[in-house]
Amino acid sequence: MSQAAAAANAVIQMQHVYKQFGEKTAVHDVSLDVPPGQIFGLVGPSGCGKTTTVRMMTGVYTPTQGEMRVLGATPDHFQKRVRERIGYMPQLFVLYPTLTVWENLNFVASLYGLNWFRRRKRLEMLLDFVELRPARDTLASNISGGMKRRLELACSLVHNPELLFADEPTAGVDPVLRGKFWNHFRQLKAEGHSLVVTTQYVSEVEYCDQVAVMRNGRLLMVQTPEGLRREALGGEIIRLKVDAEDELNARRLLNQMPFVEQFGRPRGAPYGTLDIYVKNAGTALPEVISGLSQDSTIDMRHAEEYKPPFDDIFIILMERAAAADPGSVEEEIINA
Q1: Where would a tag sit more exposed on the chain, N or C end, judged by fewer CB atoms within 10 A?
Q2: Would you say the C-alpha torsion 118, 73, 62, 205 has a positive or negative sign?
Q3: What does each C-alpha distance from 325 to 2, 101, 215 come to in angstroms?
């Protein structure tokens, strides 16, 4: 599919979008397309503009400048039939603490005009989906924070939306529950839904199909998770482990390999451990092993492709962005 065709098919299109609050610019010149049927992640430090961007996508805020279309419509002029295709899970709990879990679901369903038979079947299914059936008759004020987040998710799905926005759905919840949320999101994607998910947990980007990285209100890049790694590292990494006394000979042979772009000992690693940077680890790995085997004195303990955790990748990207724009300061402009 051509780039123009992909853009035309996008569920969300943003072109040079700005959002200002007084003299403060919360979102600066953002352009992106969100393809259908994907989990699209928005990641960045607190205050970088993620929530402001989502609120423009949902029509809560109107862009100060630029063009934006969601499901083919302008968000600040959504008609009812377009709004019915969108679900929104906010950061904070906004449901009714004096209603039970079931009553909250039922109330939200009534807002969308679901008839009773269809409503009951749908709500029963959602209770099972978010594992809240045992708490069905419990007041929302008496359930845990994690259960409230799951109730928020269920309410955002009552009307079976085509496009779901989840604003930091895993903030403040334990790792086990975070995993369950992403299982839910993957299931929704498999059912044909499109999702936009914001997160401060950088490790969660691996669950996304594409990721938009933001800093200081600006969009740094849109990439696949593997693309982010390549962007940060300039390629891929092979991690080599040899006996400490063999490191010097290994370095000598690596210097002779034309496909090796650079290598070095990782910070804090013992002698004999080297990270080798190459364009493609899959094709370079057997060549590295073959090349080092030329010296029978080198005792090669281990060699494999190494994928640094996304926390490390994120730090590299943020440091690079700061170096490119040394005058910028990450500001808490909005609770983004």
Answers
A1: N
A2: positive
A3: 33, 48, 11
Residue 151 · residue 95 · CB < 8 Å: yes
| DSSP conformation letters of 238-288 | EEEEE-GGGHHHHHHHHTT-TT--EEEPPTTPPTTEEEEEES-HHHHHHHH
- Cβ neighbours around 47 below 10 Å, total: 20
Structure tokens at 310: 């996304």
Residues 216-240: tens digit of each pLDDT? 999 999 999 999 999 999 899 999 9
Its CATH architecture, for the domain 3-230, is 3-Layer(aba) Sandwich (3.40)
Element (H, E) at 164: strand 163-167
Domain ranges across the chain:
3-230, 234-306
Strand order in the sheet with 262-264: 262-264, 273-278, 236-242, 300-306
Walk along the chain (336 residues) in steps of 10 and give the mean pLDDT of each run: 64 97 94 97 91 94 96 92 92 91 94 84 92 95 92 93 93 85 94 94 93 94 93 93 95 96 93 96 95 92 93 90 68 39
Q: Tell me the one-letter amino acid at 139.
A: L
Q: Which residue has the tokens 């968000």?
A: 75
